[in-house]
Amino acid sequence: MKHSLFEVWVFLASSPLLWLTVTLLAYFGATWLYRRCGATPFLIPVMTATVAIIAVLLLTDTPYPTYFEGAKFVHFLIGPATVALAVPLYSQWERLKRMWLPISVAWWSAR
Fold it and tell me: How many CB atoms lie within 10 A of CB 38?
């Protein structure tokens, strides 16, 4: 039984594993590019990976809900990662209070 490339793509596109793989490959590729280009701030991996994923979704005409079904696991991990970042931040609380002015200036200037 011979399958066309389109039929294979339709099958793969409906698989959540495909979109998880695309997400991870985009991030690892973006990290490689970031390091290869001397860690330039114009190629921050999260931004570059996001642009790459958007390009893949647009080129393949894949709706975002289909993509999100596969990327749900990464979305789930954001919660524990946020909590994991809060613990070291809390341990530096006294230092952060002493440096409130430089932190505020940096935060406001970045907006």
Answer: 7
